[in-house]
Design brief:
Largest sheet of chain A: 2 strands, antiparallel
Radius of gyration of chain B: 24 Å
Strand content of chain B: 15-25%
Mean pLDDT of chain A: 86
Largest sheet of chain B: 12 strands, mixed
Order of helices and strands of chain A: HHHEEHHHEEHHHHHH
CATH superfamily of the domain at 118-322 in chain A: MetI-like
CATH class of the domain at 118-322 in chain A: Mainly Alpha
Distance between the termini of chain A: 26 Å
Mean pLDDT of chain B: 91
CATH architecture of the domain at 118-322 in chain A: Orthogonal Bundle
Number of helices of chain B: 16
Oligomer: heterodimer
Helix content of chain B: 25-40%
Helix content of chain A: 55-70%
Distance between the termini of chain B: 50 Å
Shape of chain A: elongated
């Protein structure tokens, strides 16, 4: 049996929150969630880290992300170290011994600076995550609103289409499409996306993840459509657009914000998987996924080359998930209650934070 | 991917992101056989691995080392190469033919007789008329190897019309006689009759790529199952023992009862699997990152280096800007640093800047473009190409992948706006060999000798007649009538010191026009598990490792 909002005791207002608006209240609740705040800070640090890529590349490492140094030698404390040995082994982490050059070592026999590629790769991974998150959210909101508001055949068509998309093996389809588009790109009307462009993985991720956001939004719209404020707006003569975007959309804001954060995390994981399998970001450009692929070959001799980008993915995704959960709890305290009620808790707590 | 929120799942993924994902992989190599060895035992099934699926598992279509290795003991041509290594392995000997061809009419008529009593692996008797069918199939499927047979009377017309048969080949199924008339003498034709492209197959074999269901062959083994992209299996040809081995007793029968080939795309995993005995042999060499370690640990017992007659190079499409300008191509040659590439290949190539590799008759060391980036930039500035946007092609197999990335970096340093396309090694040559593929500007390639004659490094790779719509091998689309004429003249003559000298000069002339930027000659290797008798394994310069040469240790 489903539990509904009516089955659950309403959340108690926060002590001392009288007079605050809903967003301010949400902020207060979020700030009280120390774990979420800590991981939000971590996420911002990661963003700063990747944004600093050009600074590090130009002023410390003195090399670009795709620049090879196969035959270069480093002079460290009077010792000559080859960036790549004649046997093809790349140099390991030098930290600050070589004035920041090859801080994390070289990435392969091409002798590219691992640290520089990590920073630029992070930019690519985050960029893909955020842009595809925005596109997914936009598509999902529009489809969810249309399906939930109009119901009937419109809902049937949209919902079934989303069901079909949902039922597809996402990774396999992503690989198949990514591989084929990597060769010739794709043309959508007047827009042509080149084969090696990062828009290819963005497009794939955006389309395949739309159902995961659109379906909950549709459900929320169906629920909101029964509320008095919607009936009142319609009674006052509001048209469909006004109801959808003027009445329903603002009430979906908290859901959208939470899904957006979680969606970025998922997108980054998907991008990493696609890139690892050669169907995402195309070489020589780096993303954390492609860096794991490059590191794979040297896993037995230079395991850090695969582990470091893996850890970066883990930290970013983890921070986004925890921030997303924190946002959900802050913006919609009753959602936690609902989840707990679903889980069979007998005494749901009113205060979610 | 469905699990969006659970932190545990995220942690789990993150933990495996670095380690779990990296466990995917593949690898491969080839085999050979002969009577060599000793100390081994008969029987068993060879469990082997390739890093990529061959371009085709179809004798008329395959034009890669992997493909020929895979089919070397399955499809026997009228003539073949001795089951031996090195120079000895370059000797052409009778295959399905009773003896070497009788050459008459000033080198224009070749007469051979089929051995009696031969049968295909499905029991169908081998007929003389199966040979012209194989040649026609080669043309009909636009095989990259068809260029070797255009000098047969009527073959060129058949290549264009795909109708009416090839009148220059006449056969008599009763006597087994096969007579081939050439329009002009061709000094390489005996070698070319020993290639896989014209290995007889039963008449009526579909005129389509049969890689998923290879046709019956005449060799000691037959391919019983093929799953493109994944692997294939061999069993003994039941008609080998019943018929063919009696008809051609000098051909090795092989030791193992069969083989199972699995594609493992990660060569690192392949090495681990060989070390642990999960696989008995890997066709491709160990990855550069493990090469030194494997060599040190296993050389002599499970590992041996095998020299090859090969050239690794970057091709430049001479028909479109910016590489239609010889100065641009020369500048690129100056910019390529073979020393860096030697390191990228972890010492598995020897630097070279010419078309003919060492060991090939006619080779005379030249180096027209010693590495000089400044000069390259100057020349490029002089040429001032209008189009600087180029696509660079390479395959996904290491270290060719890295070589392609290195090349892309060099071109970017020269000021080109580059785009790198890495194509799965299974399909790479099919993709770049299809002229309808867009943006075929420049890229990586290699070439291993088909037969020990310098024509093999010019005609299929640089002669204008070799520019094919599909299965093209002249990636530079080089079309230089003067040099074409020299290739034609030279191949009509029997190879001698004078011809070798002229081939050396031809090498120089092509390098002056710089359709390629050659960078090295490869060494390959044989790496087997401790269960295999390394001594018996034969690496032939044309067919690679022979399956018939593998045997398990006692």
């Amino acid at each position: 049996m489903n539990s509904t909002n009516r089955d659950v005791a309403p959340a108690e207002p926060d002590a001392g929150s009288a007079g605050y608006g809903p967003w301010r209240l949400a902020l207060r609740r979020f700030l009280r969630n120390r774990v979420a705040v800590a991981f939000l800070i971590l996420f911002f640090l990661i963003v700063l880290f990747v944004l600093a890529a050009p600074l590090w590349a130009n002023h410390v490492a003195h090399t670009g992300p795709n620049e090879g140094h196969t035959l270069e030698k480093l002079h460290v404390n009077g010792e000559v170290r080859e960036v790549v040995t004649p046997e093809g082994k790349p140099i390991g982490p030098q930290l600050f011994e070589a004035e920041g050059k090859f801080f994390l070592g070289a990435d392969s026999r091409l002798g590219r600076d691992e640290m520089v590629r990590l920073m630029y790769g992070g930019r690519t991974s985050l960029l893909i995550g955020v842009i595809s998150g925005l596109i997914t959210t936009l598509l999902a909101v529009v489809l969810g609103l249309l399906a939930g508001y109009y119901k009937g055949w419109v809902d049937a068509v949209i919902a079934r289409t989303l069901d079909v998309l949902w039922s597809l093996p996402v990774l396999l389809f992503g690989i198949a499409i990514g591989t084929s588009l990597a060769l010739g790109g794709v043309s959508i009307g007047p827009i042509h996306i080149e084969g090696g462009s990062i828009w290819v993985p963005i497009l794939i991720i955006s389309i395949f993840y739309t159902p995961y956001v659109a379906r909950p939004i549709r459900g929320e719209v169906l629920s909101l459509g029964e509320k008095e404020f919607v009936e009142a707006a319609i009674a006052q003569g509001a048209g469909p657009l006004r109801v959808m975007f003027g009445e329903l959309l603002p009430n979906l804001a908290s859901t959208i914000v939470v899904f957006f954060a979680l969606n970025i995390a998922n997108n980054m994981l998907f991008e990493a998987a696609l890139s690892f399998l050669g169907a995402g970001v195309q070489p020589p450009n780096s993303s954390w996924g492609t860096m794991i692929t490059v590191g794979e070959e040297l896993l037995t001799t230079q395991p850090l080359l695969a582990i470091i980008p893996g850890v970066m993915i883990m930290l970013t995704v983890l921070s986004l998930n925890i921030v997303g959960d924190g946002l959900r709890d802050a913006l919609d305290p009753r959602s936690k209650v609902r989840l707990e009620a679903h889980a069979g808790m007998t005494e749901p707590q009113g205060a979610a934070v | 991917m469905k699990k969006q929120r659970a932190v545990i799942a995220v942690l789990a993924f993150a933990a495996v992101a670095a380690l779990g994902l990296v466990s995917c992989g593949g690898g491969g190599s080839s085999s050979s056989s002969s009577s060599g060895g000793g100390g081994g035992k008969e029987g068993g099934v060879l469990n082997a691995t390739y890093a990529s699926f061959p371009d085709y598992l179809d004798p008329q279509l395959s034009y890669t080392q992997e493909g020929w290795t895979a089919m070397g003991d399955v499809y026997i041509p009228l003539l073949t190469y001795k089951h031996a290594e090195g120079t000895e392995g370059s000797e052409v000997i009778p295959g399905l033919a009773k003896e070497m061809p009788k050459i008459s009419n000033g080198g224009k008529t070749y007469t051979l007789f089929l051995r009696p009593g031969l049968k295909y692996s499905d029991g169908t008797p081998v007929k003389a008329s199966d040979f012209p069918y194989a040649v026609e199939r080669c043309f009909k499927l636009n095989s990259g190897g068809s260029v070797f047979y255009t000098s047969i009377v009527g073959a060129q017309k058949y290549a264009e019309t795909k109708q009416g048969g090839i009148p220059g080949i006449t056969t008599n199924d009763k006597t087994g006689e096969i007579k081939i008339e050439l329009e002009k003498p061709r000094g390489t034709f005996t070698n070319e009759l020993g290639l896989m492209f014209v290995a007889p197959i039963p008449k009526g074999t579909p005129m389509e790529d049969l890689s998923g269901n290879p046709p019956p062959g005449t060799g000691p083994y037959m391919i019983t199952k093929s799953q493109p992209g994944r692997g294939w299996e061999y069993e003994r040809n039941p008609y080998w023992a019943k018929a063919n081995s009696k008809a051609m007793p000098e051909y090795p029968t092989g030791h193992v009862d069969g083989a199972k080939i699995t594609i493992v795309r990660n060569p690192d995993t392949q090495v681990n699997d060989i070390e642990q005995g999960k696989f008995d042999w890997m066709e491709n060499p160990p990855p550069a990152s493990r090469y030194a370690q494997v060599k040190e640990k296993f050389e002599g017992s499970q590992f041996k280096v095998v020299p090859t007659i090969s050239t690794y190079y970057f091709w430049m499409n001479t028909t479109t800007p910016p590489f239609d300008d010889v100065k641009v191509r020369q500048a690129v040659n100056y910019a390529i640093d073979s020393a860096a590439l030697e390191r990228i290949y972890a010492g598995q190539i020897v630097a070279s800047h010419q078309i003919l590799p060492e060991g090939m008759p006619g080779h005379k060391t030249i180096d027209l473009y010693p590495h000089n980036m400044e000069k390259a930039k100057e020349m490029l500035a002089e040429a001032n190409p209008s189009d600087k946007e180029i696509t660079v092609w390479t395959d996904t197999e290491s270290p060719n992948k890295e070589a392609g990335e290195y090349y892309e970096g060099v071109l970017a340093e020269l000021g080109f706006k580059t785009k790198l396309k890495e194509i799965n090694a299974d399909n790479y040559f099919t993709v770049i060999g299809n002229l309808s593929t867009p943006d075929l500007d420049t890229g990586w390639s290699d070439w291993f000798q088909d037969y020990p004659h310098p024509n093999d490094f010019f005609q299929p790779l640089l002669a204008s007649e070799s520019i094919l719509k599909t299965n093209n091998g002249n990636f530079a689309q080089m079309n230089e009538p003067k040099l074409d004429k020299e290739i034609t003249e030279l191949r009509e003559e029997q190879l001698g010191p004078e011809q070798e000298k002229r081939y050396g000069e031809l090498d120089n002339k092509y390098m002056e026009l710089a359709p390629w930027a050659p960078y090295g000659q490869r060494t390959l290797s044989t790496f087997v598990s401790s269960a295999i008798n390394l001594e018996s394994v034969i690496f032939n310069p044309t067919f690679g490792h022979y399956l018939t040469s593998f045997e398990f240790n006692e």
